[in-house]
Design brief:
Order of helices and strands: EHEHEHEEHEEEHEHEHHHHEE
Distance between the termini: 40 Å
Radius of gyration: 19 Å
Oligomer: single chain
Helix content: 40-55%
Number of helices: 10
Low-confidence stretches: 183-187, 325-329
Strand content: 15-25%
Number of strands: 12
Structural class: alpha/beta
Shape: globular
């Protein structure tokens, strides 16, 4: 096998996803481009840690370890990075499965030494069996999936999406790890954007760094029934606004909202127009999709406003971990 050694990190936190975790690991173990190792990082759940350790005790390439930092996804990822041995570290959500060539497309992109991060395409698996008629594709990021508006093919981007992403190890050496205090913390409010903040920080630390998305690197992400409802849609949009305020505080509103400006001025108005056109043609869900886009934008904007006030008052804090062992604020 030519190309970089790839370590895969899967962060887990609940036994409720036991079957999903096993499926995620199995999808990594059957890759056409074999992973050097799979690291399962358990987020402060001793029962799950013990159960997984027993499940994989005979599997040499699967390592089970506890999150060594504070509770949450960012610290779990940082634990996996620090413990990994690969030149490239890939991240896979615990409720997703990767297609067989997922790592092959990631690895191929790193032939260019300037490439520091490569993301892929995340496809939703709806619990109900089909996309809710009102749910706009432009908002698939709400359920952790690739959304309408991201360019197709292999393209350079500002940031990758964390549940289906990879980074060269030297990226973390240059920029530090994922910031704690931005992303998810178990079942609490569905915050995010920690990968956005990291990617912008990386581009500043290494101005010649190239970050890519290759939509051939596909994973399939389970969307539970609870996330198919408008209540979750609204909560996630609000949390996105709060998270973006923290990102803007860290890296400045210029870079922190660069991609979002194009998204809100071009992609979303086109989505509203399509929804209204479908409604006029009596197609199912058209008016609902247009309304959801407008509601999502307004809700995210409200979250951003509140988050900005909190950030200015110092009510929201985060820290960046130096993967080599130290922390700085």
């Amino acid at each position: 096998m030519s190309g970089p050694d790839v370590s895969v990190v899967i962060c887990v936190y609940t036994e409720d996803r036991w079957e999903d975790i096993l499926a995620a690991v199995a999808s990594v173990r059957t890759q056409s481009y074999p992973a050097l190792e799979t690291l399962l990082v358990v987020d402060h759940n001793p029962a799950l840690l013990d159960r997984l350790a027993k499940e994989y005790k005979e599997v040499e390439e699967v390592r089970v370890l506890a999150n060594a930092g504070p509770r949450g996804l960012s610290a779990g990822r940082n634990t996996g990075i620090a413990a990994s041995r690969g030149e490239v570290i890939a991240f896979l959500d615990d409720d997703a499965v990767a297609e067989r060539d997922w790592l092959r497309y990631f690895a191929a992109a790193y032939a260019d030494p300037h490439v520091m991060a490569v993301g892929g395409r995340t496809v939703p698996i709806w619990a109900s069996g089909r996309r809710p008629a009102w749910f706009p594709e432009e908002f698939d990021w709400v359920v952790g999936c690739t959304y309408k508006g991201i360019p197709a093919g292999r393209v350079q981007v500002r940031n990758v999406l964390g549940g289906n992403a990879s980074f060269r190890r030297s990226a973390f050496e240059a920029a530090g790890g994922f910031a704690t205090g931005i992303g998810r913390d178990g079942d609490k409010r569905p915050l995010g954007c920690e990968e956005t903040e990291l990617c912008i920080r990386l581009s500043r630390a290494a101005p010649d760094a190239v970050l890519l998305i290759d939509d051939r690197a596909v994973i399939h992400h389970r969307v539970p029934e609870a996330r198919e409802h408008f209540g979750y849609f609204r909560a996630r949009a609000w949390a996105e606004g709060l998270s973006k305020a923290l990102v803007a505080r860290s890296v400045g509103a210029g870079k922190g909202l660069e991609s979002e400006r194009r998204y809100t001025t071009r992609v979303l108005p086109a989505g509203v127009a399509r929804g209204l056109r479908d409604a006029a043609l009596a197609r199912p869900g058209g008016a609902g999709r247009a309304g959801a886009i407008v509601a999502g934008v307004l809700t995210a904007a409200g979250g951003y406003a509140v988050g900005s006030v909190r950030a200015r008052r110092g009510a929201a804090t985060f820290s960046v971990v130096d993967i080599r062992g130290d922390e700085d604020g």
